[in-house]
Each structure stands twice: as structure tokens, then as C-alpha cells.
Design brief:
- The protein has 4 helices and 7 strands.
- By secondary structure, it is α+β, with helices and mostly antiparallel strands.
- The chain has one domain: 2-C-methyl-D-erythritol 2,4-cyclodiphosphate synthase (60s Ribosomal Protein L30, Chain: A), CATH 3.30.1330.50.
- The strands form 2 sheets. A 5-stranded mixed β-sheet has the order 4-1-7-5-6. Strands 2-3 form a two-stranded antiparallel sheet.
- Helix 1 packs parallel to helix 3.
- The N and C termini lie close together (11 Å).
- The structure holds cytidine-5'-monophosphate (C5P) and magnesium ion.
Length: 157
């Protein structure tokens, strides 16, 4: 019986004018651009969902929930996250997510004011206390100004 598992996930999209910016299920009001994607482009939820699957060697979200499937196309990625969590819990032998640590890289806008809302929503989706969800924001220092990216680690225990 495993006592610990860890999963890592990543996602990135190009930024496009006229798209909403969604991060962790939160709509970032006033953002000039959002992710260009078939899905809602929520890179943070996608990175966390991939981390959930990876901990159990279950492949990735593109394999299980293709964004060409109307069920996952423009639908909120919170549904995809819940489905990935259910799949992973089915393999987890009673273990469950205990902690999430994620980094979002985006030059603009500033995300600091949204940190609590994003972390609270992720905590709710994963049934975790708020203090088990760490969210870091980074700029790319101008190296990737047209790009939004998230990376996430999930610990299971
Ligand atoms: O990437 P850098 O080290 O310059 O980020 C400095 C600060 O800016 C950090 O405190 C980070 O939380 C914040 N930040 C932010 N929104 C972003 C990128 C960084 O609030 N989109
Ligand atoms: Mg820096």
C-alpha cells in the first residue's frame, strides 16, 4: 500500500484579445487578453488536473477528456478537474490529495489581488483546507509576454 504519491502537471496557452482570462476557475476581471484555446483555457485547473492523474500514472487530461469532445470544449474546466479527481481517487486506495503547490507565469495583469479567490476555489474543488493550497505568481520578465503558463504539484497521502 502506498503511503505517499506526488504528481506534477503543466499547461500553457497563447494570450489572445477578446478571450476571458480564467485561472483556477476565477474570472480575472479587466484582463485585456485571455488564453486562446478550444477549452476555457484555464491553465491552472488543467495543470492541477494533470498532476492528479500523473500521481497515479493515469496519463493526461488530453487522453481522458479531449477538448474536441463537446462535453469538455467550452465547458468550465472545473468539471474536467472534478472528473480527473474522480478518476484518480478510483485508483488511490483511500489516499486523497493533501496539498497543492502551483506557479502561474503571466506578465500582465497583476494577479496578487486574486490570489485568495483562486486558492479558495482550488481548495473547494479538491476538498482541501485553504492553507494546503499555495499559489505563486511570476512574470516571465518580458521573455514570454504573449503566454500564460501554470505548473502544479499535488501531494497525496
Ligand atoms: O516575476 P516576479 O518575480 O517579478 O514577480 C514579482 C511579484 O509580482 C510577486 O510578488 C508576484 O506575486 C507578483 N506577480 C503578480 N502578478 C503577476 C506576476 C507576478 O502579482 N502576473
Ligand atoms: Mg523575479
Amino acid at each position: 500500500m502506498d503511503e505517499l504519491r506526488i504528481g506534477f502537471g503543466e499547461d500553457a496557452h497563447r494570450l489572445a484579445v477578446g478571450r476571458p482570462l480564467l485561472l483556477g476557475g476565477i474570472h480575472i476581471e479587466g484582463a485585456a487578453r485571455g488564453a486562446e484555446a478550444h477549452s476555457d483555457g484555464d491553465v491552472l485547473l488543467h495543470a492541477v488536473a494533470d498532476a492528479l492523474l500523473s500521481a497515479w500514472a493515469l496519463g493526461d487530461i488530453g487522453q481522458h477528456f479531449p477538448d474536441t469532445d463537446p462535453a469538455y470544449g467550452d465547458a468550465p474546466s472545473s468539471g474536467l478537474l472534478r472528473d480527473a479527481l474522480a478518476l484518480a481517487l478510483g485508483r488511490a486506495g483511500g489516499l486523497r490529495p493533501r496539498q497543492v503547490s502551483a506557479v502561474v507565469t503571466l506578465d500582465r495583469p497583476k494577479l496578487g489581488p486574486h490570489r485568495d479567490a483562486i486558492a479558495a476555489r482550488l481548495a473547494e474543488l479538491l476538498d482541501l483546507p485553504r492553507d494546503r493550497v499555495g499559489i505563486t505568481f511570476k512574470t516571465s520578465e518580458g521573455l514570454a509576454p504573449d503566454h500564460v503558463q501554470a505548473r502544479a504539484v499535488v501531494l497525496w497521502g
